[in-house]
User: Which sequence fits this backbone?
């Protein structure tokens, strides 16, 4: 069973702080990694994708990938109350066809004004 | 910006009834998916569809489930005889290729 694990939280940070979200995955052959944001009752929304070891930055968001440790993280700098949501880690597992995604359960982030 | 459209937004049905959830993927996308999310749980893959046929299905996608693309635009998920445990949010998604999904806004299915 190919699993994606996340700390369910809640993770609470003050406005302006850095929020750090973590994810581990079991399928060592996975090649593509994604972070989605999901507001309560809404559909997931893609924030970041990462494919290579190291960091990838997009605005206030930085995704980090370490394939040897099977670890993906998302940093949110200058956190805003509007960032309060559940963050889903998703992995395209090896051997799957057609870009199927396996999701973690998500980490609930609360940014306090 | 192009959208994936799902209808209805909320469906209440009695146990044992058939339901059809409808999706209109983005027009130039080639790969279509259904996922579901039981309240408080993770988003789970149900089925992928490419070139007018199922390319992969999960263990959840048993004989009670079926998908169709009856014309060039719609993509439907049918549940033949609903159970209480089918109550969930059902998301349709599409992509031109790669896992850069566009998700629809979802259908909340409540089985009573």
Assistant:
């Amino acid at each position: 069973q190919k699993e994606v694990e996340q700390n369910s939280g809640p993770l609470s940070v003050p406005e302006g702080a850095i929020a750090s979200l973590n994810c581990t995955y079991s399928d060592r052959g996975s090649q593509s990694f994604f972070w989605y944001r999901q507001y309560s009752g809404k559909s997931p929304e893609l924030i970041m994708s990462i494919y290579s070891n190291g960091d990838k930055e997009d605005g206030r968001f930085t995704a980090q990938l370490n394939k040897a440790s099977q670890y993906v993280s998302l940093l949110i700098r200058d956190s805003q109350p509007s960032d309060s949501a559940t963050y889903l880690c998703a992995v395209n597992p090896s051997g799957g066809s057609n870009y199927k995604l396996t999701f973690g359960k998500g980490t609930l982030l609360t940014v306090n004004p | 910006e192009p959208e994936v459209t799902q209808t209805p937004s909320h469906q209440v049905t009695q146990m044992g009834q058939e339901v059809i959830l409808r999706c209109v993927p983005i027009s130039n996308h080639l790969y279509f998916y259904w996922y579901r999310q039981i309240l408080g749980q993770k988003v789970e893959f149900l089925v992928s569809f490419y070139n007018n046929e199922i390319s992969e299905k999960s263990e959840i996608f048993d004989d009670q489930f079926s998908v169709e693309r009856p014309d060039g635009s719609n993509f439907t998920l049918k549940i033949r005889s609903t159970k209480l445990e089918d109550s969930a949010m059902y998301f349709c998604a599409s992509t031109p290729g790669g896992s850069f999904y566009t998700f629809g806004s979802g259908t909340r299915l409540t089985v009573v």
